[in-house]
Design a protein that fits this description.
heterodimer; A: 306 residues; mainly alpha; MetI-like fold; two-stranded antiparallel ribbon; B: 479 residues; alpha+beta; D-Maltodextrin-Binding Protein, domain 2; 2 domains; 6-stranded mixed β-sheet; 5-stranded mixed β-sheet
Chain lengths: 306, 479
């Protein structure tokens, strides 16, 4: 039996080469899953994007027709605009709040574990539950937020209508998204604890104050995490769906008709799977493009200490 | 080295096959078994103990909460009284515009045996080929349109073929008012507004703001179920129509959303939104969430469009509320009494066998004395079956008798055309443009008419293609 043979360099490689089916076999559950549940749907959705596919009838080839129609579809542009506005505010604000929380929670004071848990908690509240809670908080008539604004003396005419007012609905959703800043916070916290103390010590010796240390040590040292959360946040914001679906249904006056919500409605309310697939591919291209730009720009801004 | 031994052992067990192929095949088999075990439809199950063969009917329905519980009880009653049929009930969301679980199941060839379908969806689902024609079974069972309230029966037929049995019949709506609030505002509590002009006047008297300008009491909220729904309610009250079918029911017909009466209705809604500020009204409405927290029952809203199911809610949550119940006001050139009929039906999705068991379940639910009585008593809804004993049981109940009158008098349903879902969506968007954006109702409804007509013709053309193909395949004549 080959068991007894010493494993030499050549022998080892030969054995590996002979046993590749075993390796493949072990990976088979993953491979089959990936092929049937990811690759196949992705390929098919691209094919469907070139067809007129009303769900119950077989798809009919229309070439680039869906893409051409999309370029002229005002609702497509509207939903893209809404999503862009949301991402523009929700992503950077979420990062700033998350970072501020992390900096505060990185201090050495009593009961820190409790505070960290407290700020992380909203992140694990199920999306639907938090949407229902926020519906109540944002209620213009008797909601917690507006009652607080009234309490501090805001005149009734200035109190925002939040989800009932097309000018306030997107800010309301951005505000709500900040409640989940605890997700980024834990990552910043982990990164902050990796920043070597001696850098701070030597900077202090050189006369750097807290602001200088934050700007010239902390931020560069955690820049890979900042960059990661930015890209992930951007991808998440471009696919923003559940809260709008549950809380506003796209209203009032289509002010919260986000891209994914528009895509979903196109597919399942209008029975246009082909058109919706084309929308999905455009979203993919946009996200890919944005990520690429961010990566390119960040080359010079991110410091990888390794 | 342990891995080696295990490896060697496997080689022995794989016998004549070379090691790698044996292992490969075994794992492949396992993966395939795991992947396919969830698939495959079991429509019939036999139990060794049971003497008779028990057939399973898979039934999807969209109700949750209290109504879902009632539905489970109704189905349990059916199962109790039908030892050879077992109905397996599952939830499938249907928010009237989308029902993606069902759509994907049908497209994937895994449809349930019976599904609920809202009346307004039927033409579209039938035209798009999502449903099975059950005309022959309906005929064999001796059921005709005469068994049902006519508008609901019409909502079950597409191109002269039957695709569903009507289950419920919602008389939309009754007009309800708070007598105490009427007295406080100096109005006669026994005399509800009869015309739109009167309604406007009453609204003025019943709307109150606090010292800071916050809305604290309103008269009527004209769009309690969304502006699209309100467009139908007020469009019909103003005397409008949204669709004119073709004479032969086979060609597309004509969308008439820009009917002058509908334009007048939308103008009135706009004036309402301008007078009380649509944003404030919606803020007011959105502050009441949940079944127990209803502005009319709490007295903050003093007139409302009441749905029949809400009669029991008033009894449960506001037993001391002093209210009157009557008909929706209409302008002098409108329709009075008015109202339209909605409701759920039961259908067989495409790909499911329209088995006798499935049809028996539908028939029991929609026409049997037990099934229709349960619908009325457990769910608080009216049965679509005109002859149901339920209607004798409500004699003497003043509230339900008003609804019964609305139901008997109502001529309308939402449009019987296969672009109704799209029309609703367009009306929702269009009404928002008018209410929020101040656009001209005439221009908006003109646009909607063109778009909906275009979609209608597309869907009908597709339906024609499908009928032609089937005729070629089977040699049948088109129905």
């Amino acid at each position: 039996m080959s068991d007894a043979l010493p494993i030499g360099r050549e022998g080892g490689r030969g054995r590996v080469r002979g046993k590749w089916p075993l390796g493949v076999a072990f990976c088979l559950p993953l491979i089959v899953g990936l092929l049937s549940l990811t690759i196949y749907p992705v390929v098919m959705s691209f094919y469907y994007s070139l067809t007129d596919y009303p769900i119950f009838d077989p798809p009919k080839w229309v070439g680039l027709g869906n893409y051409v129609e999309l370029s002229r579809d005002p609702r497509f542009w509207l939903s893209l605009w809404n999503t862009g506005c949301y991402a523009l505010f929700a992503v950077p604000l979420g990062m700033v709040i998350g970072l501020l929380l992390a900096l505060l929670l990185n201090m050495k004071i009593r009961g820190m574990a409790f505070y960290r848990t407290l700020f992380f908690l909203p992140t694990i509240v199920p999306m639907v539950a938090s949407a229902v809670i926020w519906n109540q908080i944002l209620s213009p008539q008797h909601g917690l937020l507006n009652e607080m604004l009234r309490y501090v003396g805001m005149p009734e005419a200035w109190v925002p209508g939040w989800l009932s007012d097309e000018n306030w609905s997107k800010p309301a959703l951005v505000l709500m998204s900040l409640w989940g800043a605890g997700g980024g916070m834990v990552m910043y916290l982990a990164a902050l604890q990796d920043v070597p103390q001696d850098l701070y010590d030597s900077a202090s010796l050189d006369g750097a104050n807290a602001w200088h240390r934050l700007l010239h040590i902390t931020l560069p040292m955690i820049s890979p995490i900042l960059m990661f959360t930015f890209v992930m946040g951007l991808i998440g914001a471009m696919q923003y769906f559940s809260q709008a679906f549950i809380m506003t249904g796209g209203g009032p006056w289509d002010s919260t008709l986000f891209y994914s919500l528009n895509l979903f409605n196109t597919a399942f309310s209008e029975y246009r799977l082909g058109y919706a697939s084309a929308m999905a591919w455009i979203l993919f291209a946009i996200v890919l493009g944005l990520t690429w730009v961010v990566m390119k720009l960040s080359n010079r801004m991110v410091y990888y200490h390794s | 080295m342990r891995g080696m031994r295990w490896h060697a052992g496997l080689r022995h067990s794989s016998g004549a096959l070379p090691e790698r192929y044996g292992l490969w095949l075994a794992l492949l088999a396992m993966v395939l078994a795991a992947l396919t075990s969830g698939c495959g439809k079991t429509t019939a199950s036999t139990s060794p103990e049971a003497p008779a063969r028990v057939r399973t009917v898979r039934f999807w329905q969209p109700f949750g909460g209290e109504h879902g519980k009632a539905m489970h009880e109704i189905v349990a009653e059916f199962n109790r009284t039908h030892p050879t049929i077992h109905v397996e009930i599952s939830f499938a969301a249907n928010n009237l515009s989308a029902s993606q679980k069902l759509f994907l199941a049908i497209a994937g060839g895994e449809a349930p045996d019976v599904t609920m379908v809202d009346g307004q969806q039927l033409a579209e689902w039938a035209a798009r080929g999502a449903l099975t024609d059950i005309t022959s079974q309906v005929e064999r069972a001796g059921l005709t349109g005469d068994d049902f309230f006519l508008p609901r029966w019409n909502e079950s037929v597409f191109r002269n073929r039957v695709y569903a049995l009507p289950w419920g019949a919602d008389p939309n709506f009754a007009f309800c008012w708070n007598k105490k609030a009427f007295r406080e505002a100096g109005l006669d509590p026994e005399r509800p507004p009869r015309t739109i002009a009167e309604l406007d006047e009453y609204n003025q008297k019943l709307t109150r703001f606090d010292a800071n300008g916050r809305l604290i009491q309103i008269g009527l909220l004209p769009w309690p179920y969304g502006v699209d729904n309100a467009m139908f309610t007020w469009g019909y009250a103003f005397g409008g129509e949204f669709y004119r079918p073709s004479a032969d029911a086979l060609s597309p017909g004509q969308v008439t959303a820009n009917d002058p009466h509908n334009v007048a209705a939308l103008r009135w809604l706009r004036s309402f939104g301008q007078k009380y500020d649509v944003r404030k009204l919606n803020a007011f409405q959105s502050s009441f969430v949940g079944l127990a927290n209803d502005p009319f029952r709490l007295g903050s809203q003093t007139m409302c469009l009441l749905h029949v199911q809400q009669v029991q809610d008033i009894k449960r949550y506001a037993p001391t509320l002093e209210y009157g119940i009557g008909l929706i006001p209409a302008p002098p050139d409108g329709e009075y009494p008015n109202g339209w009929v909605g409701g759920w039906s039961m259908a067989v999705p495409r790909g499911a066998l329209a088995s006798d068991e499935a049809f028996e379940f539908m028939r029991w639910m929609c026409t049997s004395p037990e099934g229709t009585m349960k619908l009325g008593k457990e769910m608080g809804q009216f049965p679509a079956c005109r002859k149901s004993l339920y209607y004798q049981s409500i004699k003497g109940n003043r509230d339900l008798e008003v609804f019964y009158e609305v139901l008997k008098g109502a001529r309308h349903v939402r449009t019987l055309m296969p672009a109704q879902g799209y029309l609703m969506e367009l009306l929702r968007r269009g009404a928002d443009e008018v209410l929020y954006g101040g656009r001209d109702p005439q221009a908006v409804l003109d646009e909607i008419t063109i778009k909906a007509q275009h979609r209608l013709e597309y869907v009908m053309a597709r339906a024609n293609d499908r009928t032609d193909n089937r005729t070629v395949e089977t040699g049948d004549a088109a129905p």
